[in-house]
Specification:
4-stranded antiparallel β-sheet; about 120 residues; mainly beta; 4-stranded mixed β-sheet
Length: about 120
């Protein structure tokens, strides 16, 4: 069922105090005990993806996960950690309305936070 909503994201690197440029992001549709890969993207200079992860044509209700590849991102920046803590950060959420869903991530090598944005 296509809807009139959309799904976007934004990643901020709180260690360096700037948008997280070049972070890999995967979107999955959760179906029972397995997932379906929907999209794979990278953040731009502003820490956003250039196109919505879901737009009006592909928008649907259901349970989703965004996988943020934060370990790879910090490694690429040359952040050396004796023992890396975060690798892939999965955020699972439900889309239940035909609205704009925005799932931002604030991240450092040791912590993250998210919320339903606008």
């Amino acid at each position: 069922m296509a809807g009139s909503g959309r799904l976007t994201t934004h990643v901020l690197d709180t260690m360096h105090g700037k948008p997280a440029r070049g972070m890999r992001i995967e979107l999955l549709f959760v179906h029972g005990d397995h997932n379906h890969h929907i999209a794979d993207s990278y953040t731009n200079e502003d820490g956003r993806v250039d196109q919505p992860l879901l737009d009006e044509e592909r928008f649907q209700h259901g349970e989703f996960e965004i996988h943020f590849h934060v370990g790879q991102y910090f490694e690429r920046l040359g952040v050396e950690l004796e023992t890396p803590f975060l690798d892939v950060v999965p955020i699972r959420f439900t889309i239940s309305e035909d609205k704009h869903y925005h799932v931002p991530l604030l991240v450092s090598p040791f912590a993250y936070s998210t919320y339903r944005g606008s």
